[in-house]
Amino acid sequence: MRAKQLFRTKEEHVLYLGDWVFHVGPTFIETPFGTETKDADLHFYGERLTEALEHEVDVTPLSNWELYRLEPGKLENYLAESNCLIISDVEAKCFHLYPSFFDRARRENKVVTFPDRLTAIKQWINDGGGMMMLGGWLSFSGVQAKSGWGRSTLQEVLPVECLLVEDLVESSAGFTAEVVMPDHPVVKGLPWDKFPPIFGYNETTEKVNGDVLVRVKETGHPLVVAGEYGKGRVFTYMSDPAPHWGINFELWEGYDAFWLQALNWVKKRK
């Protein structure tokens, strides 16, 4: 599945970066002289979230490698057409480089730079854009601190502070949610008493300019935080909207309404 919206059917548009995986295998070792790898699959983990959002908007999903390969200026074009940007399970480094950077022949031995994509996103939010950053192994600080968002240009925009070490908090028993601002438009009226256990989240610390809407009941860590930057709004959900952390979350009866309320809030509909 790839960027399935070739023709817009709705007036508003969301750019969804991340939550794809290319799975290769299984691999069979039948002899000391070789192996056989059978089957390959490209899978979009964000399909459930996309379905929820497409009640109201069109969504263009791009994988991490598609983002990395976007020619300079293309991301800015996407943003100009979008009401909301979602970043989920994407390392900050995917925004910094462009493959032709390494192509000396195309550079003709000249000094070269490219527009900084994170600076462009920051300016887009400052001018009124709405962003959602969602959790996962490659979000916030991430596994082995590989995600790098705490040292990125967008750290200033986020309503939470990223750790500078690995931030994954996981449990096979699951974590539950505790709403602390029940009247906020993002969380109001949802069946939080039926929120299913999630298998993990990214630990962050709250900022004074961020509103913690929901906490992890067992630890007190922020789970849903909303904030503003310039004329824009930023929403963070520190767990995954998709498997594996969110495999139960996708079944929550409030799933669709939660994401639509978050979307409407970042678009300043509420």
TrEMBL record:
Pfam family, any one: GATase1_like
Domain Putative glutamine amidotransferase, residue spans: 47-267
Protein name stated in the entry: Putative glutamine amidotransferase domain-containing protein
InterPro entries tied to this protein: Class_I_gatase-like, GATase1-like
